Amino acid sequence: GNPYMCNECDAAIDELAHPPELMFDVEGRHPYTFWQSTTWKDYPKPLQVNITLAWNKTIELTDNIVITFESSRPDQMILEKSLDYGKTWQPYQYYATDCLNAFNMEPKTVRDLSQHAVLEIICTEEYSTGYMSNSKIIHFEIKDRFAFFAGPRLHNMASLYGQLDTTKNLRDFFTVTDLRIRLLRPATGEIYVDTDHLTRYFYAISDIKVVGRY
């Protein structure tokens, strides 16, 4: 983009560094703090990054997982979960600008599901295409799945908790010990990568919000 809008990054200098802990500090400061990956300088080798969150305990998720990107949202990403402290991983949701091409999956949203399909793992294009409001935010929609049992405004939480208490698969779906964000392809905004300007391709995240109880 405009070279006058660029800032220098240097991981060896505190004032110019963007380390991982800046994804979890207090938001609302100016200038905003964020983690940033290296640029895609090794193209055509994929620019892929794993971000792992581990709590060393079992967490029951109670609200949406929200990832706020400082850069554009990635073209391809997988959110994964573990129930055994990172020994094994299962996909939670796939994100792509083209689900069929990226993951051989038809695109869906949680609103396309039903109570009987609430545990279905989907690929969504909702957070990867276009530049709408909140275009830097990605959700994993816990509350939309809760709504299949508690109603659209979550007024009947007793029904949800009854289902969680009696249905192990459902309870396990909303339970994690670890989460992993797999960033597979940065936002390119076009079909082809501009190999003359590889510094424009990278990942940057300003905040990750996970709400739960244990």
Helical amount: 10-25%
Tell me, rounded to a whole number, the average pLDDT.
Answer: 89
Shape: globular
* % residues in beta strands: 25-35%
The rounded distance between the terminal residues' Cα atoms is 45 Å
Number of helices: 4
Give me the strand/helix succession. EEEEEHEEHHHEEE
Main sheet overview: 6 strands, mixed
Low-confidence segments, given as residue ranges, are none
Physical arrangement of strands within the biggest beta sheet: 6-5-4-8-2-10
Radius of gyration: 18 Å
Say how many strands there are: 10
Class derived from helix and strand content: alpha+beta
Condensed summary:
By secondary structure, the protein is of the alpha+beta class.
Written overview of the protein:
This protein is α+β, with helices and mostly antiparallel strands and 214 residues long. It contains four helices and ten strands. It has helices at 99-103, 142-150, 157-166, 168-173, and strands spanning 35-36, 49-61, 65-69, 76-82, 90-96, 123-124, 137-140, 175-185, 204-209, 212-213. It has a six-stranded mixed beta sheet. Strand 5 (90-96), helix 1 and strand 6 (123-124) form a beta-alpha-beta unit. Helix 2 crosses helix 3 (157-166). The longest helix has 10 residues, at 157-166. The radius of gyration is 18 Å and the shape is globular. The termini are far apart. This is Netrin-G1. It comes from Sphaerodactylus townsendi.
